[in-house]
Amino acid sequence: MVALGSGGRRIGAQPQQRIVVIGAGLAGLSAARVLHDVTVLEARARIGGRIHTSRLWPDLPMDLGASWIHGQRGNPLTALAHEAGVQVVPTRYDAAILLGPDGTEIDPDLRLAEQILARALAATERQARDVSVLQALEASADWQSAGADMRRLVTYLINSRLEQEYGSPARLLSAWHGQDAKVFDGSDVLFPGGFDQITTHLARGLDIRLSAEVIGLAPGEVRLADGNRITADRVICTLPLGVLQSGRVQFGEPLARGRQAAISGLRMGLLNKCWLRFDRVYWPDDVDWIGWLGPRAGHWGEWVSLARTLDAPILLGFNAADPATEIEELNDRDTIAAAHEALRAMFGTRFPAPIAAQITRWGQDRHALGSYSFNAVGTDPATRRALAGADWDGQVWFAGEVASADYFGTAHGALLSGREVARRMMGHK
């Protein structure tokens, strides 16, 4: 185990208690900044959790996990970036193009597609039970009467705005509550120097033990994979939902029924990235977003270009939900080949292969087992509130994006949840 430091800015009035935070992602680090005497246990050999900045390309840090501050205005990450002196650059959604299957730029009127989806979801509000987005759509008269071109547009819309956003297949995402996450106003911004500048700033001065994987938790004690046991009066658990669901961490006493139901009912979404580097820019250099209505819905349908924002010859290809799971089964060579095949369809057969690539497989990451949580059919904000907060008479507390009813699935949701739970714990007698 490696300690990164001790001390730091904290509040609290119970210095005699030993507090342990499990996880050095945004939720764990933000909780630790609030607390008095705290040890942070992190299973990985690095801090950050699902924030992971790669420096494989020294001149261009690439965020393999979270990349954006989504909505600058009022977002706590904006204040942290300012406090840390971290540069940000906006990406523009109006700097976008949409390509048809053969690569021809198209400008369809998406309003009708939006109306078809909106009416399908609105119809479920009159139903007695929740259904999935896909079930709602397929039951709608609009969908049943739509032609092939309109169906392709609606399917693209679902992938771009729902599956990419929440990491959930439309067949699992709640029609009632799948889009319940609140948003901040303002631009979405990237970190040219990497998102890990934020986690490094938060971690400064904290006692963080790396490569300290927790496998058991009981009142008064935390068990580690290396056989060590750590006594703790109180614990804040910020493990990702996928890890909680895996059963790898054993709880010495049963958790509250509502918390158990929340852990089993919520689902972990998946969004994977494929960063491709070229020797120069071979695509329109004045756009940030490139959509593609390819032959396989959702596969390589959304791209981000760094040509305009960072003057870098780099494309980022996204795959979410079921396509993300499929792509994870490929090796790097075949993944790059699939991405290149898509780009050749989009921009012509002479489009060159990338000179380098970086690929994520968050579903296979044993310390995450997915990207972020989503509201599956039958779950709602109350499900997340049941997961958040205290168990075992205040000896263990739960935080993280999964525990955020308002901002689930986001970095700022994890940050706010960690702060809130830490403050609630310090006020709990």
Automatic annotation (TrEMBL):
UniProt-listed Enzyme Commission number(s): 1.13.12.3
Organism: Roseinatronobacter thiooxidans
Catalytic reaction equation(s): L-tryptophan + O2 = indole-3-acetamide + CO2 + H2O
Keywords (A to Z) from UniProt: Auxin biosynthesis, Oxidoreductase
Protein name (database record): Tryptophan 2-monooxygenase
Gene3D superfamilies recorded: 3.90.660.10, FAD/NAD(P)-binding domain
Binding site for substrate: F318
Ranges of residues in domain Amine oxidase: 26-426
Domain of life: Bacteria
Keyword Oxidoreductase in annotation: yes
UniProt record, GO biological process: auxin biosynthetic process
InterPro entries hit by this protein: Amino_oxidase, FAD/NAD-bd_sf, Flavin_amine_oxidase, Flavin_monoamine_oxidase
Molecular function terms, GO-annotated: tryptophan 2-monooxygenase activity
Pfam families: Amino_oxidase (PF01593)
Residues binding FAD, per UniProt: E42, A43, V214
Family: Belongs to the tryptophan 2-monooxygenase family.
Pathway(s) the chain acts in: Plant hormone metabolism; auxin biosynthesis
Cofactor: FAD
